[in-house]
Amino acid sequence: MFETALFYVFAAVLLVSAVAIITARNPVHAVLCMVLCFFTTAGLWLLLGAEFLAIVLVLVYVGAVMVLFLFVVMMLDINIARLRKGIWKNLPLALVVGGIMALEMVAILGRHYFGDAVPREPEPGYSNTKELGRLLYTQYVYAFELAGVILLVAIVAAIALTLRRRKYRRRQDPSEQVRVRREQRVRLVSMPAEKEE
Description:
With 197 residues, the chain is mainly α. It is built from nine helices and no strands. It has helices at residues 2-23, 27-48, 51-75, 80-84, 91-114, 128-136, 141-162, 174-179, 182-185.
């Protein structure tokens, strides 16, 4: 009973934070809502017994990826009004894609709850971490490597966006500093000596 109540609390917070990601006017607030979304998803995975996935979600996504997103969002000068312009014309496509995803989830969960499949208890000594590693590095190895390459490209793109040259930034050029001669650095001015009276 307690786990069921906890599930509904986590699910409600997850749905509210997911809606807040889309409707937030400030990009920084949207990123912070996404952090809350990841934490509640990790809580749901803990309830399902997938401790390793919950810890990886918190460490990797909240600890690294979301910090990178927050850094990039705060460094970029995003024009919110231009981004929001024309957002409603994409609503029909978004509703169709969301409806297809909802139907897929109902089909998968409906087979589990209303079908003949009886969930089996895990064997003693079963480790979901070991099973996950076996699946990732055998059956899904190409998808896993492709996801790694996509993440690498995303990190490089985020760094490239933050390292753009700004017009008003002052910087030093070491090659020009090394090429300077002694005559250009110091100028000796000959002045007559002053006499004290």
